Amino acid sequence: MNLKSFKGLGLGKIPGLYDTFLSINYMLSKGNTIEMNGQKFILDNDSTTDKRMLSYRYQGHEPGVVKIAKESLTEGQVAVDVGTNFGYFTMLFASIVGESGKVYAYESEEKPFNALLKNTNVNKFKNIDSRQLFIGSVTTLDELIPEKIDLVKIDVEGMEHHVLSGMLRHLASGVDILCEIHPSLITKMNGNIKGIETLLYNNKYGICIVNDTEIIPLGYLKNEPNTNYQYLFRSHSK
C-alpha cells in the first residue's frame, strides 16, 4: 500500500498507525534504493535515519524550500548545507549546481553523516565536500569557505545564531539563507530569537516565512513554542 491509499482509507488518522506503516515499509525496503527529487537514497543505515527518508518520500518534504533552491541556484554556483542529516537538500543542491559548481555539506552527528556519504556515492556526485563538523561561532563558515556562497541552508536544532554569527563576511556579500527555526530549541540552547533578528537587521537582511506554496514577507521571527518555521533571509541589496 502506498501513502495515497493509506490516507484515502483514513488510516493515517489512527494514532500510532502511520509510524507502524513506516516501520513495515522500512523492514520491506531496507537495503534498497529510493528516489526523491530525481536523486537516489540508500536505505542501509540506522532505523531512525531510514524512516526519516521514507517519511520524506511518502509525504514530500518542504516543497517551498525545494522550489526556492531550484529558483535561486544555477549551474556553476556554490551552495552550503549546514545540518545535512542524510543529505536530502545536499543532493538537490549538487544536482542543480552541476560539475562546475560546489556544495559544502556539514553534519555533526555520525549516523546521518555516514548516510550522507552513502547517498553522495550512490549518486556519483563529485562536487560535494562533506565534513563531520559542528558549525558555530568557533568553527565558522567564514573560516571554512573562502569563495563567494550563493545559497546557505541551516538546520541546526537551536544553534542558528551561532552559525549566523560565524558567517558575517558571507552576510556582507548578500548570500541567500534558508533557515529552519525551532523557538523552543533556541530557548533550550540558551539562545534568543531577538538576537537573531538583530543580527539580520544589522546586516540589512529581510525576513520571509516559507510555506509549501509561497514566500511571505514577515519582518520578524515567530516565537510560538513547540512549532518550527522555515524562513528565507534575503539581503535588501537584492
How would you describe this protein?
- The protein is of the alpha/beta class and 238 residues long.
- It folds into two domains: 3-59, no CATH class; 63-235, Vaccinia Virus protein VP39 (Rossmann fold, 3-Layer(aba) Sandwich), CATH 3.40.50.150.
- Helix content is 40%, strand content 20%.
- The strands form two sheets. An eight-stranded mixed sheet has the order 5-4-3-6-7-10-8-9, sandwiched between helices. The chain has a two-stranded antiparallel sheet with strand order 1-2.
- Strand 4, helix 6 and strand 5 (128-131) form a beta-alpha-beta unit.
- Helix 2 (17-29) packs across helix 3.
- The longest helix has 13 residues, at 17-29.
- Mean pLDDT is 88; it is low at 1-8.
Calculate Rg over CA atoms: 18 Å
Give the end-to-end Cα distance, rounded to a whole number of Å. Answer: 46 Å
Run of helices and strands: HHEEHHEHEHEHEHHEHHEEE
Which sheet architecture does the biggest sheet show?
8 strands, mixed
Binned, the helix content reads 40-55%
Supply the CATH superfamily name of the largest domain: Vaccinia Virus protein VP39
What is the CATH architecture annotation of the largest domain?
Answer: 3-Layer(aba) Sandwich
**In total, how many domains does the architecture comprise?**
2
How many β strands by DSSP? 10
Strand order of the largest sheet: 5-4-3-6-7-10-8-9
Average pLDDT metric: 88
Q: What is the class of the largest domain in the CATH system? A: Alpha Beta
Low-pLDDT ranges = 1-8
The coarse silhouette is globular
Q: Which structural class best describes the helix and strand composition?
A: alpha/beta
Count of DSSP-assigned helices: 11
- Approximately how much beta-strand content do the residues carry? 15-25%
**CATH topology of the largest domain, what is it called?**
Rossmann fold
